[in-house]
Amino acid sequence: AYHIQLKTSLIETGFYLFIVWRLNIIGAKNHSTLETVIINVDMVEACSRFDAEAILGEMIELAKNPSEEIEADGDWLSLAFNKGQSIFMNRADKVLQENKQRNENFINIRLRSLELSYNKGKNWVNDQLDKTDKDFRIKMLHAQLEKKTNIFEEKRLKLESKRTIQKNHSIVSAGILEVE
Question: Residue 155 contacts by C-beta under 8 Å, 6 or more apart in sequence?
Answer without folding.
Answer: 114
